[in-house]
Amino acid sequence: MKHTVTMTINGESVTAEVDSRLLLVHFIRENLDLTGTHIGCDTSNCGACTILLDGKSIKSCTYLAVRADGAEITTIEGIAAEGTNHPLQQAFHDQHGLHCGFCTPGMIMRSIDLLKNNPNPTEEEIRWGISGNLCRCTGYNNIVKSVQQAAKELQKESESV
Amino acid sequence: MIPANFIYHKATSVKEAIALVQTHGEEAKYMSGGHSLLPMMKLRFATPEHIIDISKIDGLSYIKEDGDFLKIGALTTQTDMEYNALILDKYAIFSDAIKLTADPSVRNVGTIGGNIAHGDAANDQPALMLAMRATIVAEGTDGEKEIPIDEFFHGFYMTALEPADILTEIRVPKAKKGSGGAYHKVERKVGDYATAGVAVHVELDDMGVCQEIGIGLTNVSAVPMRLDRGEALLKGKKITEDLIEEVGTMASEDCEPTSDLRGSEAYKRSIVNTITKRMIRLALERAQH
User: Is the ipTM of this complex over 0.95?
Assistant: First the structure.
């Protein structure tokens, strides 16, 4: 059965017909061609498919597209102002927070939510905060350093506003 | 993995949801957070023909003290609980459990009501509900009903809820002077089910004598389990280290774990013993402060 859904994706309104059983990650990747959101385990363990739904990180492999009707969605493609990197993207670059890069979009989307709730996290809080996102290359140390750098940068930004 | 075909319905009120299940009968299933149900559907372990989405119903997400109870709306997410000032201040047992439940992104969607209504002894909240002797409030075709937790869990994925019943609220005793609780589970890795877990809630009088005690066990039986023998031993007594040792032994004897990838039966009995003792000590410490 088809449903008409309307949602905002990275600031743009999108209306589409979707099947009841269509998963949000497939809608994002296949209908909208936004392939920065990855499919890893497909069982809500690995976090490669993490996006923001109404500002909260969710695993889009375990969410029906039809349930996102009316929602505001942000993917990795939608976080940087034109011509710049988001502070988390820049930090992952500076700190070598990735090797193969497959987990990186999910790590960054999760970290945005983490730093919104806790702008100045301890190392332990960062490790628990990204505990639903698996990386098979880095050993996590440089990811933690990246989130720490971004936390400082984002705090500077919010203080200067 | 893609679920088998089904028809999605969005309910905007409890009454509408109940009416939808009445129309579509046994092949209809409620979905709140969907983080237990949808994975089962993707694996085709569950193939409901109709999904009734109750997550958009207004007014079922709240945490408040009212009379002698803490009342939690069923659609309150685990994240709402994690950052709630009242929970952080007075209900440490929930904070213990939620930090160890799945991971932050799953907690953003998963609800407290769903964790209980799913009827899975591997979930964390059932043990807490047993320890605190919660009352489960549900609405069905005959109106609202209150179900004592000891009558709620019937079997593997089976509860006292009729097909049209919606779990709407959880009530646990309000925190007071002399009461305290604690929960811990051993898990192999973040997001895994508990190898074993134990929830303890105690209420002491001014003399430090145990007036109420609840001990619930996670994932060491087919149905969420209460440690009756341990509770009977402690109730009405000053809880000493010797008694705690005895209850730990009882827990390891009375639980019903099976050997699986998470550990052998003997290992699980051993950690149930250890966690039970630690959680009684921690609950006592919290009750005395």
Answer: yes
